[in-house]
Design a protein that fits this description.
mainly alpha, MetI-like fold, 2 domains, about 70% helix, about 0% strand
């Protein structure tokens, strides 16, 4: 009874009184709030450039408004179809091939009985994540180089014709980009699934084993349903990044010979906005805003589908 009365009296206090009483907690809260306001919300004011013809003399606020001209220019550009197609192709390919791998790896590691071998497997699969993107692309160039590369040095005697430059082949770009990324991030992405599997009640496995369930059936009917809500949330978040292919890695792997398959929205925005002598900040901002709006629509749609088909959703 007394506890209820304490709660009742506390809720009747004003916000200012509660903030003074618990000021330490609000100070801790102030740090992330300031971070979000300065680095996340304040830069959004620059989105008005997408609807202006920017010039340095007048600045962001003084530049004249031109409406949706930059969006129309992008939609009518010869680059529009190629950039959108490359972005969606690479992103969906990476999602479909890379999303199940951490789940399978986590389920496999959870089935390992030897603790020493399990730790060794975790270490080996986690290490590639700590390789920087620049080093990873450098490894690709060293391994696949047509002259002096690792493959040529190992199998040069078996290759009768001249070894092709695989990094310059447009048809192989998406495969090299996606599978090198899967190798790099598969172990690290499995950590969250391993953590979810750690919460499985051992008595469930014991009861299923007594009933004669094999190891595969226990994984299928006990372990997999446990991580399914986590996988659903991560899938929704991944859907919101479909139109955002990593800029650094694509830009480093890009060359004039594979440009037809490697030009994606992020690299195109950099080139039209900053990377050329005729920079157009407004045009680059418009393309980036269009990309963000598509990602927002996708994450909302996938979240609604997940909410309709299952009990787990992001919001």
């Amino acid at each position: 009874m007394s506890s209820k009365q304490v709660v009742y009296r506390d809720t009747n206090k004003s916000l200012a009184t509660r903030m003074l009483e618990h000021w330490q907690l609000y100070v801790f809260l102030l740090i992330p709030v300031i971070y979000l306001l300065v680095f996340k919300y304040y830069p959004m004011l620059g989105l008005q450039l997408a609807f202006k013809r920017f010039n340095i003399r007048d600045g962001v606020w003084g530049s004249p408004w031109i409406g949706f001209d930059h969006f129309v220019k992008f939609f009518n550009s010869y680059q529009f179809k190629r950039v959108i197609t490359n972005t969606i192709t690479v992103s969906l390919y990476g999602l479909l091939s890379g999303f199940p791998l951490p789940i399978l790896l986590a389920l496999s590691m959870n089935s390992i009985t030897s603790k020493r071998f399990k730790k060794f497997t975790q270490t080996v699969t986690y290490l590639p994540y700590f390789i920087s993107v620049v080093v990873l692309v450098g490894i690709l160039f060293q391994v696949l180089a047509p002259r002096g590369g690792l493959i040529v040095n190992l199998f040069g005697g078996l290759i009768k014709s001249e070894f092709p430059d695989l990094m310059a082949n447009p048809g192989l770009f998406k495969h090299l980009y996606v599978w090198s990324g899967n190798w790099q991030y598969m172990g690290y992405n499995s950590i969250i699934y391993v953590a979810a599997l750690a919460g499985v009640d051992p008595e469930l496995h014991e009861a299923a084993q007594i009933d004669g369930a094999s190891r595969f059936k226990r994984v299928l009917h006990i372990d997999f349903p446990t991580i399914l809500p986590t996988a659903s949330v991560l899938l929704i978040m991944s859907a919101g990044r479909i139109m955002t292919v990593g800029f650094e890695k694509v830009y480093l792997m890009q060359n004039p010979l594979n440009i037809s398959a490697s030009e994606v929205i992020t690299t195109y925005v950099y080139k039209v906005g900053l990377g050329t002598a005729t920079t157009d900040f407004s045009y680059g901002t418009a393309i980036g805003l269009f990309n963000s709006l598509i990602n927002l629509i996708l994450i909302v749609l996938v979240n609604q589908l997940a909410k309709r088909w299952g009990e787990t959703s992001l919001f």
